[in-house]
Amino acid sequence: MNIKEFFGKLLDRRLWLNLLGMAVVVAALCLGVKYGLDRYTHHGEEIPVPDVRGMGAAAARALIEGDGLRAVVADTGYNKRMPADCILLQNPVGGAKVKSGRIVYLTVNSESTPTLTLPDIADNSSVREAEARLKAMGFRLLPPEEITGEKDWVYAVKARGRRLSVGDRVPIDVPLTLVVGSGTYDDSLMEIDYVSPSEITVTYGGEDDFEAVDAPPADAGAADAQGAMEATE
What we know:
By secondary structure, the chain is of the alpha+beta class. It has 5 helices and 11 strands; from the N terminus they run ααβαβββββαβββββα. It has a 4-stranded mixed beta sheet, covered by helices on one side. Strands 2-5-3 form a 3-stranded mixed beta sheet. Strand 8 and strand 9 form a beta hairpin. The termini are far apart. About 4% of the residues have low confidence.
């Protein structure tokens, strides 16, 4: 190929039309991706999340969805000072700026007091272990009640003065009391009365059970032996 043919192909109209078409396609793709992502991610859009704490679940859901957001009940809690089925918590919090379609997770107040199962605490752990375990489960504890016994050893668990057993269901708002040893013992239980043999008496069932026999004198045996020896002589 000589120089004339090279420049002839380079100046060919079809080549430039193809290059122009490719440039248009690339530019359209770039613009489409840019505006498509902005539309998909709602770039620059900010919607304030309404504060629905304390509202009923139905009213809170309607308010949230009315602003272009989504409401999902994610958990339940319990607050006896709040009405049942009201919103206790929300995430994101009220006033946060989000994009449309964002999910707002709600925590609804339970209608009844939730209960927890009492674990194996009594006579199986120290007071420190028992307190850590019960508090981690959500129980509230009152000051321990001390009794005579091994120091800081848990002998029982009480609720409202009643002893509980392993597996009992206890309302979460009822505080528990641990019955623990004080490290002292009742000395009266350890006392032993020693009695000399001369102080021991034997009592029979009745007078008719045995025939009364007069006891021989202390020297009767010796006198009988002496008489027997004289007779042989």
